[in-house]
Design a protein that fits this description.
The complex is a heterodimer of chains A (235) and B (787).
Chain A lengths: L3 E14 L2 E14 L3 E5 L6 H8 L7 E6 L2 E2 L5 H11 E4 L11 H9 L8 H7 L15 H13 L5 E5 L7 H17 L3 E5 L11 E6 L2 E7 L12
Chain B lengths: L2 H12 L1 H38 L5 E9 L2 H6 L4 E7 L1 E7 L7 E8 L11 E5 L8 E6 H7 L6 E6 L2 E12 L19 E7 H7 L5 E9 L5 H13 L7 E2 L4 H42 L1 H9 L4 H41 L11 H28 L2 H5 L23 H12 L1 H39 L4 E10 L2 H6 L4 E16 L2 E10 L23 E4 H7 L6 E6 L6 E10 L7 E4 H8 L4 E9 L4 H8 L5 E6 H55 L4 H37 L13 H27 L3 H6 L3
The complex binds adenosine-5'-triphosphate (ATP) and magnesium ion.
Chain lengths: 235, 787
């Protein structure tokens, strides 16, 4: 039995915009396990990003509990959350979010400089097969390359968890495959617990575990007996 | 260097034009602090050291003729540390190559020792000897103006006899740092000299054997100056004492004081203006930068950078901009400081005058600048630090624009779409629009207040030389003469008309307030030298009563109808009460005037005059000068035309310099504000503008949207700037309002116009630079990137 990395119980999130309350999460229970790659599917607005943000310490829940290993994420302060993100979590976002004024290598270094036991930035770029492009600025790279730099940046500190919000959302299928391959490689080689939000239902086949979101809840969970390699996935 | 710092440097490089525009405003602030404080210190500290080293006296008094033994009795007045007597006499000088006579002041030197008080710095040569004819050490400025060196000779009328003086040395004295000749309004090196001569020589020449006519006193620490003055007056009363006075009334000292006051005024007005503008610009830039980098900040937070790290990152940016500003400001400050010192050298004669460069001024200037920058950045940085990471990652919601509806009437409907865009954008950012408006208005105010000085000076010249003192020349007698002397002067060559004048030193009291002035007596129906009332109309002297310049009236806290006590300090030293009959205008010194006959009556010394004003046939001036140089009774002659030329020359040079500096400062503000405002808008609206270009709008049309706002703000800023300029000019005039001089508060309409033109050119220039950038707008790139 593998160890639990994340555990959420009755997690809710309500946004108050003006006098309208938006219930982004209406009570989510879930568990993510060490070394596993999970995929999260669900219609737009069903609360996937909200959950991932709470698990990643970017956002706080309205009620319910969320735990990372022994660390209670709900109810702790901004400073603890910052330290939690700094030491344990790697993020990948849909729009890469690279710092445009820094080169690929420097974007990675941005994280390794404040991490405890990071790999060398070059090493991280090699893992995503971008060793050659380290001195290029984001504007000089394609979307897929930029996303791989973002993955390199996320994994360079050897995070325990890697949280990816639509990492292939802005990419074509071929490039998307390259990005997913980078993710599975990291998951396999560094044993990083990984969660990937996607709108491409086929992607679920590369995962250990698939969560289906609906209207702020997890409607269903599947465990894949058989996993596919990213390049085998149909888009 | 870590990655975050690299980002910082590249950010700075990316917005370098904006950084430079702000840095220049900061630099101007730094420079004004440095020169205001630095120059203040240079003058003040150099003066203090100079006084100390050469034992500048604390209290002075003239007398007609007092026995030398009086000095010992003065020394026994409680509170007096040192007392010294000497002979001080005016001379008329005749220098080869200069047709007009010069004025000199001969000061006696004790035999065989340096003076106890009012010693001087010998630049070259040796002290004069008593037995070697007429030898003199002369003031450096006069020497330089005539290229005199030890060994040079020139002629002087000493007690009515022409003598040849030989120069033995060149010196400078703390008593005459600002050396103003009699009747002059500006120092004139060519026409005024201080001469130090052996005591014995002067005693013999002026029949003052064993006598003195001037005493100086050094006070003990903590002694009461008024008390000593009172006792000194009592002691000297019998010997024609002219009323003792402290340093405050010593001409050179008072002028330096007023200069120091002006610098203080400048220090209190200019740097704050620049610091406010700095804070505003930094605020504008940082707010925009942080809005642009919102996602980057979110990412930094997501990967584990804390609030403090983010805040520090942006604070560093402010520090970098400040450092650039400070470095430029140091350079500017140095340069301007040295310029100012050179400018002072035209007025003040110091053996040395170094621009004060002490580190603390620099540190202070840097600290104030950084504080202003951080203050300006604080809200933006705070916002960045507080940005929740999850929110930061989401693109900002499209900005909410408003439409203003008044009932069913949409005021925007009258405008075309372009103008609507402009106005909505302005309304959406009211604080920034207001800030830009005020910044532009402020720069206009600075421009007006600097240009206004020209108007003031022209007005002053017109009043002084063409309305009040319309004589061509004034002869001052060494002693008061009987009224009939006027007939002799009327016979001098070229003299068309003469007008007598009387001047008596006096102390005017009102309650506990008092001032030492020279009460001027004017004959009834004076045509040459007149006094003007506040409406610039010549005042007909009342038979009884005194008129006071408004500054003097303010100092004495009196108004028309009040009584003041006049204590004459000459002759019989009569004391009388007299009604204040009116107020008059004056820009130099303190002025009190009476009808000459009533003044003579009150003084009780018969019909006497001290000076004669003359209208002269200008084609015969040489002959007149030649004759005057031989007149025994004449102590000095003032020539209005020479005086005016000197006034214009000196002031024109100085004011043009100052004006250039202030105008540049105003332009720097205008440019900094306008450029940053337009540039930031361009950055905010690049997408919008590029989209319009894609839709087929021309560059000119697109530029219009952006620059319209600047144009509207500039137009709105004009009236505010005019009002601000008026107020600032008033402050400047007030800052220049001291007992020794004032400037009139008059602003020509032209000045408003010119200042506005300069402002508009500066704004247009910054718009042009932004326009060039609009032309280079990369449509594809702008539309591809997410906003
Ligand atoms: N800051 C916010 N303020 C108000 N409502 C919000 C905010 N963030 C998210 N929401 C709302 O919460 C709900 C869940 O949003 P979330 O971003 O989690 O959806 P998602 O499943 O990630 O959707 P997508 O697939 O489109 O990214 C949505 O209805 C969204 O509008
Ligand atoms: Mg989402």
């Amino acid at each position: 039995m593998t160890a639990t990395v994340f555990k959420a119980e009755g997690l809710t999130k309500t946004y108050l915009t003006g006098d309208v309350a938006v219930h982004a999460l209406r009570g989510v229970d879930l568990e993510l396990f060490e070394g596993e790659l999970s995929v999260m599917l669900g219609p737009s607005g069903s609360g996937k990003s909200t959950l991932l943000n709470i698990l990643g310490g970017l956002d706080t829940a309205t009620s319910g509990l969320a735990r990372f290993k022994d660390l209670q994420l709900t109810g702790i302060g901004e400073h603890e959350l910052t330290l939690y993100r700094r030491h344990h979590v790697g993020f990948v976002f849909q729009f890469y979010n690279l710092i445009p004024s820094l080169t690929a290598l420097e974007n990675v270094a941005l994280v390794t400089e404040i991490a405890d036991d990071p790999m060398r930035p070059e090493e991280a770029l090699d893992l995503v097969a971008l060793g050659e492009r380290q001195n290029h600025f984001p504007a000089q790279m394609s979307g897929g390359e930029q996303q791989r730099v973002a993955i390199a940046r996320a994994i360079a500190k050897r995070p325990e968890v890697l949280l990816c919000d639509e990492p292939t959302g802005a990419l074509d299928s071929k490039t998307g495959v390259l990005v997913l391959e980078a993710l599975t490689t990291v998951n396999r080689e560094l044993n990083t617990t990984t969660a990937v939000i996607t709108h491409n239902a086929e992607t679920r086949k590369i995962a250990h575990r698939v969560f289906y979101f609906h209207d702020g809840r997890i409607a269903r969970m599947e465990v894949n007996k058989q996993r596919l390699e990213p390049h085998e996935v149909k888009w | 260097m870590n990655a975050l710092d690299k980002k910082l440097l590249r950010d700075v490089m990316h917005i370098w034009t904006q950084v430079l525009a702000v840095a220049l405003v900061m630099a101007a602030g730094v420079a004004t602090i440095i020169i205001a404080i630095g120059a203040h210190r240079s003058l003040e500290e150099t003066r203090a050291a100079y006084y100390e080293r050469y034992r500048f006296a604390d209290v002075f008094s003239g007398a007609t003729r007092a026995p030398a033994s009086i000095v010992e009795r003065i020394g026994r007045i409680p509170g007096v540390a040192v007392a010294e007597g000497r002979i001080v006499k005016p001379l008329l000088l005749d220098v080869e190559g200069m047709p007009e006579p010069a004025s000199g002041l001969a000061i006696s030197l004790p035999e065989g020792r340096p003076p106890h008080l009012n010693d001087f710095f010998m630049r070259a040569g040796r002290l004069p000897k008593a037995d070697a004819g007429f030898e003199a050490v002369i003031a450096e400025r006069f020497a330089n103006a005539h290229k005199f060196v030890p060994g040079s000779r020139f002629e002087a009328v000493i007690n009515g006899r022409k003598r040849v003086l030989s120069v033995t040395g060149i010196a400078l004295s703390p008593e005459y740092i600002y050396a103003l000749g009699p009747g002059d309004v500006m120092p004139d090196d060519r026409r005024f000299a201080i001469l130090w001569m052996a005591e014995e020589t002067l005693e013999a020449a002026f029949d003052l054997d064993g006598a003195v006519n001037s005493v100086s006193v050094k006070l003990m620490k903590g002694a009461s100056e008024p008390a000593v003055i009172e006792q000194l007056d009592q002691l000297l009363a019998r010997y024609g004492g002219l009323g003792a006075y402290g340093r405050k009334d010593q001409l050179s000292h008072a002028f330096l004081d007023s200069e120091l006051e002006e610098l203080k005024g400048m220090r209190n007005v200019l740097p704050p203006i620049f610091m406010v503008v700095t804070a505003f610009l930094i605020n504008m830039i940082m707010t925009r930068l942080i809005a642009l980098e919102r996602e980057q900040i979110g990412l930094l937070k997501a990967v584990g950078y804390g609030r403090a790290a983010i805040a520090w990152h942006y604070v560093k940016l402010v520090l970098i901009i400040s450092c650039i500003g400070i470095v430029i400001g140091y350079g500017m400050g140095q340069w301007l400081g040295h310029g100012l010192t050179r400018l002072y050298a035209r007025f003040f004669s110091y053996p040395f005058l170094i621009f004060d460069n002490s580190a603390d001024v620099f540190i202070l200037a840097a600290a104030i600048t950084i504080a202003a920058g951080l203050l300006g950045a604080s809200s933006a940085v705070w916002h960045a630090a507080a940005l929740p990471p999850a929110v930061a990652m989401r693109p900002p919601a499209p900005t909410a624009y408003r439409t203003l509806m008044i009932g069913k009437f949409n005021p925007f409907a009258v405008f075309d779409q372009m103008t609507r865009m402009t106005i909505r954008h302005m309304i959406r950012r009211p604080v920034r629009a207001a800030g830009t408006l005020l910044g532009i208005a402020l720069s206009l105010s600075v421009l007006i207040s600097s240009l206004f000085v020209f108007d003031a000076i022209e007005f002053m010249i017109d009043m002084l030389y063409f309305r009040a003192d319309r004589q061509h020349a004034t002869l001052f007698f060494s002693d008061d003469k009987h009224m009939r002397t006027i007939h002799e002067t009327a016979r001098l060559p070229g003299v068309i008309r003469t007008e007598p004048a009387r001047a008596v030193s006096a102390r005017i009291r009102h309650g506990h307030l008092s001032r030492r002035v020279s009460v001027v007596g004017k004959p009834a129906g004076a045509q040459l030298s007149r006094v003007l009332d506040l409406e610039m109309q010549p005042v007909a002297m009342p038979r009884s009563g005194i008129v006071l310049s408004d500054k003097l009236a303010r100092l004495l806290d009196v108004t028309t109808g009040n009584y003041v006590t006049v204590e004459l300090l000459e002759g019989r030293r009569r004391v009388f009460d007299v009604v204040v009959a009116g107020k008059i205008r004056s820009y130099i010194g303190l002025l009190a005037a009476m009808d000459m006959d009533s003044l003579n009556e009150l003084a009780g010394e018969g019909q006497v005059i001290s000076a004669v004003h003359m209208a002269v046939d200008t084609s015969r001036t040489e002959a007149l000068y030649g004759k005057v140089k031989e007149l025994p009774a004449v102590a000095s002659i003032t020539l209005q035309r020479v005086s005016l030329a000197r006034f214009r020359d000196t002031l024109a040079k100085n004011i043009t310099t100052m004006m250039l500096v202030y105008t540049s400062l105003g332009v720097i503000i205008a440019f900094g504000v306008a450029y940053n405002s337009a540039r930031i808008q361009l950055s905010e609206r690049a997408r919008e503008l590029a989209s319009l270009r894609v839709l087929g709008f021309t560059r000119a049309e697109v530029s219009r949207i952006l620059l319209n706002e600047l144009a509207i703000l500039t137009v709105l800023a004009l009236p505010i700037g005019w009002v601000g300029g008026y107020s600032l000019a008033w402050l400047v005039a007030k800052g220049l309002d001291t007992e020794v001089h004032r400037i009139p508060f008059v602003i020509d309409r032209d000045t408003f116009a010119w200042a506005s033109v300069v402002l508009i050119v500066a704004v247009a220039l910054s718009a042009l630079i932004v326009r060039l950038r609009i032309n280079k707008l990369d449509l594809i790139a702008v539309l591809k990137t997410r906003d």
